[in-house]
């Protein structure tokens, strides 16, 4: 299908049958592999990564390169949508209440892998300090996409995004991504380290991310919230046009935050998460008709007397299926495209990587220790009569602690991005160190979801029903822990 350079339009040609059958088989095996992965490993994304390996450059190279690049882009859009949904459904009240705890967990999850990498690579394997820094940075990341997918698909009985430990997990993963962005920017400047302005290189993404994190909730509460309450907007637009109005607002906010984050020097993934939290925080009153019709009819959007659909309703109805069956599989397949599979199988690489993978898994599992430590501090502040009635923390919080630690293990797309920048844009990373790092990223991306799926399958109820770390109730008066708040749109969560 070739278009002449002087043509003013794309010439239409019927795709050849080989391309058609190849693409059909690709999407078919993505769906089948997810089902098999869920049944066997309780992590369907592993099957989709394997399909990406087979159809991509690493093994079979069955798909044309232009298609692989297209699916990589679609997959990244899928990642953005996954993270936007995470911000849309997260408990904002728990997010703010546990910000210090999340920051502690994030710093522990970043610094520990870097320290362990220096100990092994620099002192043990004899690599240079810059090489150890690049590898440690790649393994300090946490896969946001994998984190959200694992939480959403872990159990049909409980929504772990609504638990306290799930909120801490998401917040820590987001902060890990911000730290990873800063370190990636530093790594990309290592090519010309003598002439680089490291103060601005390091400071820009930190400043941009910090300002966005501070300004966004203030703008949502004092600007967007009051505007949304105006009768001219809420009644004449959102109640009248329903899903259409919700879609327009969600797309506009998401695109605005992606552009702001990109041009300011922050992560677009961080921007997507903030966009979701802004939409989630918009206050709204339900408008219920005495005899509402089925929401599946298109007339809902045209009748202002019916219940105005919430933003999560709109997301579920119009976006979720495309995300689940097209964009999300493309994202995990694109991870498979990026794995140098053939180079992984040499004796020296394998034994070094086994040691390194174990160390990197431990480096993230340590994050789970913040749960018993936080309980220990809380119990010390508790009056003696109440303390006597409490279950010993060691017996109570092991399941939430293990859930937090194992869910942080997956590195995924962020780790692969960082290590490839280190290889392609700096002269400091050797091919062998790159391959060892890729092995560790891949194995941890497999170990993490499988461990989380197995844990929640057996002890999911213990995590969700834990009175401190499980699902935290919001009472009918919109109060959390006795403090009245504004209940946010659609999710029953509390706006900041």
UniProtKB/TrEMBL annotation:
Annotated Cation/H+ exchanger transmembrane domain residues: 44-457
GO molecular function: antiporter activity
A Gene Ontology cellular-component term: membrane
InterPro entries, per the entry: Cation/H_exchanger_TM, Na+/solute_symporter_sf
Pfam families: Na_H_Exchanger
Segments traversing the membrane: 17-36, 43-65, 71-92, 99-121, 133-154, 166-190, 202-224, 244-262, 325-342, 354-377, 398-421, 433-456
Subcellular location: Membrane
Membrane topology: Multi-pass membrane protein
Biological process, per Gene Ontology: proton transmembrane transport
Region described as Disordered: spans on this chain: 283-306
Keywords: Antiport, Ion transport, Membrane, Transmembrane, Transmembrane helix, Transport
Protein name per Swiss-Prot or TrEMBL: Cation/H+ exchanger
Lineage per the UniProt record: Eukaryota, Fungi, Dikarya, Ascomycota, Pezizomycotina
């Amino acid at each position: 299908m070739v278009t002449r350079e002087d043509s003013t339009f794309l010439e239409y040609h019927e795709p050849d049958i080989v391309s058609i059958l190849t693409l059909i088989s690709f999407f078919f095996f993505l769906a089948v592999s997810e089902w098999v992965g869920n049944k066997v490993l309780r992590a369907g994304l592993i099957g989709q990564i394997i399909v990406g390996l087979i159809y991509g450059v690493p093994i079979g190279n069955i798909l044309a390169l232009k298609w692989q690049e297209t699916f990589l882009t679609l997959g990244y859009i899928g990642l953005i949508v996954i993270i936007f949904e995470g911000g849309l459904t997260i408990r904002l009240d728990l997010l703010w209440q546990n910000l210090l705890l999340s920051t502690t967990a994030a710093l522990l999850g970043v610094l520990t892998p870097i320290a362990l990498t220096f100990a092994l690579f620099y002192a043990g394997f004899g690599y240079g300090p810059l090489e150890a820094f690049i590898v440690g940075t790649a393994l300090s990341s946490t896969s946001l996409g994998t984190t959200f997918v694992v939480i959403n698909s872990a159990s049909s009985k409980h929504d772990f995004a609504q638990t306290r430990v799930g909120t801490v997990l998401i917040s820590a993963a987001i902060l890990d991504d911000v730290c990873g962005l800063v370190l990636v920017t530093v790594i990309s400047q290592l090519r010309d380290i003598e002439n680089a302005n490291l103060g601005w290189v390091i400071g820009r993404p930190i400043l941009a991310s910090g300002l966005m994190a501070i300004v966004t909730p203030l703008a949502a509460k004092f600007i967007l919230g009051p505007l949304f309450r105006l009768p001219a907007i809420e009644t004449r637009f959102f109640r009248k046009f329903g899903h259409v109005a919700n879609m327009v607002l969600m797309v506009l906010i998401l695109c605005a935050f992606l552009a702001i984050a990109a041009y300011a020097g922050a992560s677009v993934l961080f921007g997507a998460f903030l966009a979701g939290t802004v939409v989630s925080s918009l206050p709204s009153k339900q408008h219920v008709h005495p005899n509402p019709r089925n929401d599946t009819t298109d007339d809902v959007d045209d009748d202002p007397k019916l219940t105005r659909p919430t933003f999560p309703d709109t997301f579920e109805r119009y976006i979720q299926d495309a995300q689940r069956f097209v964009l999300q599989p493309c994202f995990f397949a694109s991870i498979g495209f990026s794995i140098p599979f053939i180079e992984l199988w040499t004796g020296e690489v394998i034994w070094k990587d086994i040691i390194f993978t174990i160390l990197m898994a431990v480096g993230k599992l340590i994050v789970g220790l913040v749960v018993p430590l936080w309980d220990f501090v809380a119990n010390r502040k508790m009056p003696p009569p109440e303390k006597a009635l409490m279950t010993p923390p060691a017996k109570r919080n092991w399941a939430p602690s293990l859930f937090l630690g194992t869910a942080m293990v997956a590195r995924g797309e962020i780790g692969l991005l960082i290590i490839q920048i280190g290889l392609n844009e700096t002269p400091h990373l050797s091919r062998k160190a790159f391959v060892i790092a890729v092995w560790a990223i891949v194995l941890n991306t497999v170990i993490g979801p499988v461990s989380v799926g197995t844990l929640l399958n057996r002890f999911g109820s213990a995590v969700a029903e834990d009175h401190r770390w499980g699902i935290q109730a919001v009472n009918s008066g919109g109060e959390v822990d006795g403090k009245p708040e504004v209940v946010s749109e659609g999710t029953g969560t509390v706006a900041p």
